[in-house]
Amino acid sequence: MSSFEEAGTEETVTCLHLTFYHPCQEEKLMFRCLDFRKREQVWAEETAKFGRDSSACRYNLMDARVSRIQFSLQFYRKLHTSECGFEIKNLSKKTKLTVNQTELGYLNKVDLPWKCIICFGDYQILAEVQEGESVDYFETHLHLAEAPILQERCLPCLPSLQPIPEHGISSSLFLSQGKSPTEIDENEL
User: Fold this and answer.
1) Residue 161 lies in a domain
2) pLDDT value of position 11
């Protein structure tokens, strides 16, 4: 038998791909402490925390508007299965966190879907889980988006987005002009 045949089977590792976007990322460099070059190994019993406090958070966002600890991700194995997943918890008392269209207040947590958009403030993070077999650790691979993630994916996530009425004129146009929208009869057009 060759050494290849005697070698143990390699375990695949669960990898959490996180793509970050902020409209002012080029001027403010809030992602300068994140390593976008390589995958990073995180032990299963660790909680991956994101925020501006470098002593408490593994992933630092250099922005005074970000909470000291904004949110955490916990790797776990689902009960009675070999399947693993992630739980996301909002740790900010001031800022709500949105996972797809689920709003999380302080200390609220949900299972992280296999593909979702995480939003808080002006931050958009596309999270994609690549399944693996290892239960000892997982990996994170960080990416930087050049364009807004929400526009690329067409998923409404931010509460600031307003629906556009059928006639194609946004109510924000009227409000910016100091006028309120008025209802017009079809026959008047």
Assistant:
1) no
2) 75
Torsions phi, psi for 71 (to 5 deg): -155, 165
- In the beta sheet, which residues pair with residue 48? 73
Residue-wise pLDDT for 128-178, tens only, equals 999 988 889 999 999 999 999 986 544 444 444 444 455 555 444 444 445
3-state per-residue secondary structure call for the chain: CCHHHHCCCCCCCCEEEEEEECCCHHHHCCCCCCCCCCCEEEECCCEEEEECCCCCCCEECCCCCCCCCCEEEEEEECCCCCCEEEEEEECCCCCCEEECCEEECCCCEEECCCEEEEEECCEEEEEEEECCCCCCEEEEEEEECCCCHHHHHCCCCCCCCCCCCCCCCCHHHHHHCCCCCCCCCHHHC
pTM, full prediction: 0.74
4 is a domain residue? no
Report the number of distinct structural domains present in the chain.
1
Report CA-CA distances (Å) from 8 to 3, 33, 109. 10, 37, 38
Stretch 71-87: mean pLDDT, rounded? 91
